[in-house]
Amino acid sequence: MGTADDSPPPESPAAAPEEPAAPPNVHRSPPPALLRRRIPWLIGALLVAAVGAFAYHLAFGRTKVVYSTAAVERGDVESTVVAAGILQPSSYVDVGAQTSGKLKSLKVQRGDQVAKDQLLAEIDPVLADTALTAAKATLESMTSQRSVKQTQLVLATAQRDRNEKLSQQLLISDADRDITRANYEVARADVASLSAQMKQATAAVDTATANRGYTKITAPMAGEVVSISALEGQTLNANQQAPTILRIADISTVTVWAQVSEADIVRVKPGQDVHFTVLGSARRWSGTVRQILPTPELINAVVFYDVLFDIPNPERELKIQMTAQVFIVLAQAKGVLLIPTAAVGNAGEGARLKVQVLKANGSVEQRAIKIGIKSEIMTEVTEGLKEKEQVVLGGMATPGATRNPLAVRRGP
Asked: How far is CA 339 from CA 51, 66, 297, 330, 398, in A?
């Protein structure tokens, strides 16, 4: 049996002292060796970020505005007064009935071309024939009665002369002489009265004859039938007002009636050039102001004056009552330097002002200019700019600003 070893057990190596636990939100620093391995990566990342920031600043950091520009160009410009107009025939006539009766027939239709004195319509001549017959009968009766009275006047004259001689010889009394004198005066008055009635009867015959002729209605002028206002079978009464049957117009030349506001009429003068367009056609017609009517017209509390000018229309392309957009030319110039009117704002013709010009290196400079004729779209430049220079529109840039090299420049 073994004996118990009473010697003490060998001592184990001394354990390292335990470190205190780190607080829960505190991170330990990496060991120096690990830190040395990460430094090159950190330096590379910083270099890449710096290069990217520099490139971004180079490309975008200096941009202050995207310019909208327009090139100075050479062209034509005109200053105008714009107005709305209506096309009317240069001349027209309303053809009516001068005698009463039923409209027997119409010989034309709308759109027909007619010659002067061409038969247009007929009125039933029954009433006119009756009136003419009655007038002639009255005249014949007056003629017969005057013949009788003239015979009686001859007899009364002879009796008066004979009794005058007898009275001088005291062969008849004064009373008998006075009777023959009175008979003579009565006979002479009867003849005079019937002569006057015969004149009236003759006039009545002439009127009835004319009315009979009026039953055939002819064209008073050459032109086109543009409207018909009566129908066959309709009874026409010409006793109070001549009823209109149709209208004939000469549209080989049309007159444009342009309505110009009171604010613009002071600048419009006879003889000025004018042009206009109509809906549905790209053609432009030109003419000259002929007349400015003195009487204004009030439309929606605005005063307008009618300005008239004539346009040849041999092909009948222009129709009456068409609406026209009219441009009355106040001033014009051809082959001059032009910039958009938006670049000069509200500056008036002949004004001096400053605009911004985009230079070839991308910078913007202020430029003093003088403008001439100004339209709604383009304005003439008489001083300060050269052809093909780029003018900044809208006044957005400031002197010394640099253009974004990546921006797209609008305009020529």
From this structure: 43, 19, 38, 19, 20
